[in-house]
Amino acid sequence: MAKGALLFWNCKLNFIVVNSISALKDIRACIVDLDGTLIDTLGDFEVALNAMMAELGRPSVNSSDIARWVGKGSEHLIKTVLLNSFKGTEALGDAAVEELMPAAWKHYQATYLRINGQHSAVFHGAQEGLAALQARGLPLACLTNKPLDFALPLLEAKGLSGYFSHVFGGDSFPRKKPDPLPLIETCKALGTAPFQTLMIGDSANDAQAARAAGCPVVLTTYGYNHGEPVEAVDADGWVSSLVDIEAWMGETAGRNWKS
Ligand SMILES: O=C(O)COP(=O)(O)O
Ligand SMILES: [Mg+2]
């Protein structure tokens, strides 16, 4: 977190930390990440990955490791889990993992699609936060590294689909976050310039992609940031609940900030 950042507490004791108020002045649309920002999906990942590991005769994986590895899409997650699976001292090398990938993906996808959303929960304040941004007239897009076939039914099952004019997944564009391409393409779909389009995410992936695309970025303090403190990531601000973001935009006039 930058020195001189401003800290604002609201009456519900959520908090907001702001590095750059000017970055949030001209926001005309928002891009919202999914896993770790809107929905706590660790339970779904754990069930799908462990069903896959059982099918492949590999040891199970725990949710704290998954929290460190999630965020760069399914293929990256499956490979990381396989590369870090040990039977005693026996580990899988890169070639063995590559060979297992088609079967691993088939098992993972089958279970994920079957249990999608059953072990996941919308984060406190996320739905209210989307509603407040929508009520302000801001078009919203969901941009996740999750495959689109996983993201669409999950948003539907959790009652969040209606907030988004567009939903893009990790397979919607040739490259995923932290590459800026998905953000640039999402801005085009929203019809706003990157500097007018706020990225709301939970990890360095979202922030790096936003910086490279020229979008302002706010991060949540509660998601999955590869096991690293999210406050150390280069961003324009941090929130403990999405419910506060809309108020924060209004807050740039007549604000009640504390240093
Ligand atoms: O890597 C994933 O599957 C999900 O990542 P997200 O944080 O971009 O939604
Ligand atoms: Mg995320």
TrEMBL record:
Entry EC number(s): 3.1.3.18
UniProt catalytic activity: 2-phosphoglycolate + H2O = glycolate + phosphate
One MF term in the entry's GO annotations: phosphoglycolate phosphatase activity
SUPFAM superfamilies tied to this protein: HAD-like
Residues at the active site: D33
Cofactor requirement: Mg(2+)
Span of the signal peptide: none
The protein's name: Phosphoglycolate phosphatase
Functional summary from the UniProt entry: Specifically catalyzes the dephosphorylation of 2-phosphoglycolate. Is involved in the dissimilation of the intracellular 2-phosphoglycolate formed during the DNA repair of 3'-phosphoglycolate ends, a major class of DNA lesions induced by oxidative stress.
Pfam families attached to this UniProt entry: Hydrolase
